[in-house]
Amino acid sequence: MTNPDAAPGAHPGRETPAMIRLEHVGKRYPDGTHAVDDLSLDVAAGELVTLVGPSGCGKTTTMKMVNRLIEPTSGRIHINGRDITRTDPVKLRRTIGYVIQSGGLLPHRTVLDNTTTVPTLLRWDRGKARARARDLLDLVGLDPDTYGKRYPHQLSGGQRQRVGVARALAADPPVLLMDEPFGAVDPVVRDRLQTEFLRLQAELRKTVLLVTHDIDEAVRMGDRIAVFAQGGHIEQYDTPLAVLGTPANDYVADFVGADRGLKRLAVTPVTPDDVEQPPVVRLDDRLADARARLRAADARWAVVLDEAGALHGWYDDRNGTGGIRLDGRVRDRARRMDAWVPVGSSLKAAFGQMLQYDAGWVAVLDGDRFLGVLTPARLHEALRRSVGAEETGIAPEDVVLETVDNAPGR
Ligand SMILES: Nc1ncnc2c1ncn2[C@@H]1O[C@H](COP(=O)(O)OP(=O)(O)OP(=O)(O)O)[C@@H](O)[C@H]1O
């Protein structure tokens, strides 16, 4: 299963031919350090793979061998079927976007000039290169008129990172290498940059290798995660759900942390099977009719939709009619409620909405269509089902749970 927060079209790679293939790759530095050892890895086109592990375990060395900033001492690396040792390294690097932690911008060049670096090296027409750079700055959330003429020191850390991403994408490379790209900014900015990059990736579907030492970032960003250990080998290479659900060994279990059950919230999607159906009334319904419907369903509250069928909020019958005439309309008693998530969002996003709105449920929508509500009990069930599925190999929807009483509207 792919990461629900990750790019929708990005797929775990087994069905499609690899865009990046490492075959028994090793790197021994001249001083004898064995940084990478017999490492094999396939990354499918359009897939985002995170390389995660503690400091010094060979993640950066592995990544730099893909654009030949470092030469392997054994093994083969192919990009799109071509052995990269047969490609001139300088030419190769112009076809691979590269984003590093500090942004890696040239300090004496403006943001616009930094962004046009690779297209200029590729001898693009100047007008075309600048137009492309402006589009990309816009895409990464920087107004080109405001920021294009600034120098890197006139930007915040987060803005520099955005320019770094725009620059890496300028020549439209199929492959993007990102080395701790969000490492130099504070957690709030990092979270925003991660979200923005995932949105961008959903559109661009680049083949991405992203190095991080942060398991949360690896889980959030990756379609698949490669967990590295000291000595430069991979202990597990799988989807975030599988790595969190069934760590391959004690090392991986230790690395992903004791709270891996919680981390699964971020990678388990809300499906239509998870929602329940409380009674639904419309703003224009008569209160008497709404009450009758609630009574018939033995429920205390109902979801309220507006005339167009969009979520408005809820109607609570618990306090009786309190003197309000029953020939009134639901709109007289309805309360607004903005807690909702699109189907397919992560359970974590749904839980976040519940907390933000202090709500006992969130509506789940498919486009504008109301599918039902997710309650804390249902959320817990979905999480347990996903753990059960991982342990038993059964599809999540077929996992049988001993359920708690969580009937809607009660
Ligand atoms: N030029 C070099 N010469 C000798 N050893 C090196 C060289 N570059 C890196 N190493 C060693 O190779 C190992 C892997 O380094 P690498 O930078 O790939 O790790 P990493 O997982 O990216 O670490 P970090 O998260 O700290 O960046 C380390 O032990 C490091 O000290």
- Strand portion, in percent? 15-25%
**Fourth CATH level, the homologous superfamily of the largest domain:** P-loop containing nucleotide triphosphate hydrolases
CATH topology of the largest domain: Rossmann fold
CATH architecture of the largest domain: 3-Layer(aba) Sandwich
Backbone structural class: alpha/beta
> What's the gyration radius in Å?
25 Å
- Estimate percent helicity: 25-40%
From the N-terminal CA to the C-terminal CA, the straight-line distance is: 34 Å
Total domains, how many? 2
List the bound ligands: adenosine-5'-triphosphate
- Average pLDDT over all residues: 85
Major sheet characteristics: 6 strands, mixed
What is the CATH domain class of the largest domain?
Answer: Alpha Beta
Q: What is the number of helical segments per DSSP (H or I, 4+ residues)?
A: 16
Widest sheet: strand ordering: 6-7-8-3-9-10
Low-confidence spans: 1-14, 403-410
Organism: Yinghuangia aomiensis
GO molecular function, one term: ATP binding
Family: Belongs to the ABC transporter superfamily.
Protein name: Betaine/proline/choline family ABC transporter ATP-binding protein
